[in-house]
Structure formats: structure tokens, C-alpha cells
Please model this.
Amino acid sequence: MTFYLKERLSSKLKSIINTPSVGVRAAIINKQHQILLIKHTYREGWHMPGGGLAPGETPIQGISREVKEETNLHIESAAVVSVLLNKWRSQHDYVILFKVIQFTGSPCINDPSEILDIEWFNTNQLPEDITINTRRRIEEIISGEPNNGHW
Model:
């Protein structure tokens, strides 16, 4: 619950002072062409791992940290797929989406107070309760179709 409150407070403060934030997400795809998704304890649906950048952190440092914290995987290399605008709760966020196919480790939940579940899914059999924007980003990555610039 503390993650949810921290996220809501941070979002509200940023919207009051009109400060955009930068976040990162990782489409982690294994050799079986499955994608790794997580469920948070404080947010509905399945999502790609990721989160906000810390002050002074580069995008690759941020996605490496977030993936390690949320999945226990170590990213060996990641490629930027797109940079998207996310208008959420009257706040302007920018999301840097990475595709990760080179990683080490086995996924597991490091912090059960933040992550409820973690699972590999076939990209053509995504879970019903995946968020619509997560589904769209995965479909764009798999098909190679361009996105509209919005999360």
C-alpha cells in the first residue's frame, strides 16, 4: 500500500507544479518468444517491468535497476523501441520503452510488497487482464507497426 500512496502523492505534486516525469519500461522477450509481465500490488492488470528514473540516472541505468528490483533479471543489453507521451492523471509523463532480449538470471519476486506476480506469456496469448496500453505496445513491438507517440 505504501507504493500506491507514494505514487499518488508524487503524481499529484508533479501535476500541481506541472513537472513532467520520465519513466522506463522493458519488453523482455526470451528465446521462446515469450514476454515477461508483472502484476503490482498497487495497480490493476499485467504490465511490463519498469518505473520512474531516479535523479541523475540514465535511462539504461534506470531500466537495469527497475528490472533487477522487480524481476531479479540482469539486463545485458537493451534497445530503445520508442519514447512515448503518457497523459495520466492530468500529468505529462514520458516513457522510454526498451526491448530486451539479452539478459541473465531467472525471474522471481524480490519484493512481495510491490510485486504480486511475475510470469512469461506467449506474445500471441496475452492474459485477459493485461492493461490495454501494455497490450498495444507489445503488439507494436511484435508486428513492427509504428505507434502513435502516446503510451
Summary: The chain has a mean pLDDT of 90. The beta strands are 21-28, 34-40, 46-47, 50-52, 74-88, 91-104, 115-122. The helical segments are 2-16, 59-71, 132-143.
